[in-house]
Amino acid sequence: MSLAALRNTLRRSALNTSARAARPVFRQGAVRRLTTETPTPKKSNNNLLYGGIGAAVIGGVAFYVYTSNSDTAKEAGTAVRSGAQVAKVAANFVPTKEDYQKVYNRIAEVIDSAEGYDDGSYGPVILRLAWHSSGTYDKETKTGGSNYATMRFEPEAAHGANAGLNVARDLMEKVKQEFPWISYGDLWTLGGVAAVQEMAGPKVPWRPGRIDGFAAQATPDGRLPDASQGSDHLRNIFYRMGFNDQEIVALSGAHALGRCHHNRSGFDGPWTFSPTTVTNDYYKLLFDEKWVWKKWSGPKQLEDKKTQSLMMLPTDYVLTQDKSFKKWAKAYAADQDLFFKDFSAVVARLFELGVPTAQFTTSEPWIMANADE
């Protein structure tokens, strides 16, 4: 069976299942009660699921055995999983929003459990994991993105831009053990949503449907921003993902959170005085402070002349120098509500890069409740 034929079988199976499925009933609202119980699917949905993906699984297994351990076999295995996800969506055989809310609430607890780590929150490093696992997308080849969660594998886990993210992956692995039904891609991006919202940021629309891939699908190094570069580099990186100048500047606002670590990136220090709270201070500081090149043995970075306690990277400072970038950076410095609106929209897009629309379990993204709501 060819790979194309296998994919056709998957599509037909999903469509047939959809035709037989009863109209789904969606439960509304968010659940604040914490639990580690794994949701039990309804029996009627089991029958729909098995009917929809049985042929796909049989065909996929046969193809895998025939091709042994080849890359084609791995691709076929991923196609089976993707087709199975589509069939689940068609049959409504998926965890509910309430189930994902429980995962969100558990992540919120993890964020607040940092104590001695950095500035007392795991939020910034969890957001960075979601960002870096999504920002590898290439719109031309349609590779990378959040769908396969390939940072689980070497060498992607060891890419320079991902230094230190083992901290976040280990934290998320503990949550995964409590909720084994959630994919890594969904878990990591949901973690990014929780990080933004729990650190006083805007609501970020999100929906599940990502699947776990193989090491062969890991992305090459060089797809994430190099902080030592300028505007041309930023455009090359972000245009490849499908973003424009305004969205580049809005995404840069994530630097309101967290800090650089000399033993990871080589750079050192926080961008703002409140690195665990989402604000537009990042933009305001860019224009309000006097920035000078830091005199030290590390890589080229800037520090604020007044206190010498803050830092900006070359890719940050370019937002004040490039005419197109500067327009949007000034706008966000002047209006936090505008920044929140644009930041929410572009982060939601970032977290969906590389995910086929048919895999999503809902046509409209959800707004997850904050842990204290």
Automatic annotation (TrEMBL):
The EC category is oxidoreductase
Could you tell me the Gene Ontology terms of the biological process aspect for this record?
cellular response to oxidative stress; hydrogen peroxide catabolic process; response to reactive oxygen species
Summary of the function given for this chain in its UniProt record: Destroys radicals which are normally produced within the cells and which are toxic to biological systems.
Q: Gene Ontology terms, cellular component aspect?
A: mitochondrial intermembrane space; mitochondrial matrix
Record Gene3D superfamilies: 1.10.520.10, Peroxidase, domain 2
Query: Which SUPFAM superfamilies does the record match to this protein?
Result: Heme-dependent peroxidases
Keyword annotations for this protein, in alphabetical order, are: Heme, Iron, Membrane, Metal-binding, Mitochondrion, Oxidoreductase, Peroxidase, Transit peptide, Transmembrane, Transmembrane helix
What name goes with this protein? Answer: Peroxidase
InterPro entries in alphabetical order: Ccp1-like, Haem_peroxidase, Haem_peroxidase_sf, Peroxidase_I, Peroxidases_AS, Peroxidases_heam-ligand_BS
E.C. numbers: 1.11.1.-
Tell me the classification of the organism that encodes this protein. Answer: Eukaryota, Fungi, Dikarya, Basidiomycota, Agaricomycotina
Give GO terms: molecular function aspect only. Answer: cytochrome-c peroxidase activity; heme binding; metal ion binding
